[in-house]
Amino acid sequence: MKKVKYDRIFRTLALVVILSLLLMAIPATPALAASATLSPTKGEIGDTVSVTGSGYTAAHKVYIYFSSQEVDKGDYIDDDLDVWEEVKTTYAQTLTDPDPGDIDASFKVPDELTDGYEDEDVHGGEYFVYTTESKEDKILTKDEFTVIGITISPTEGPVGTRVEIDGIGYDDDYSIYIEYDSDDIDIASGEDETDSHGEFTCKIDIPESTAGEHTITAKVHGDEGEAVFTVES
Question: Structure pTM?
Answer without folding.
Answer: 0.80
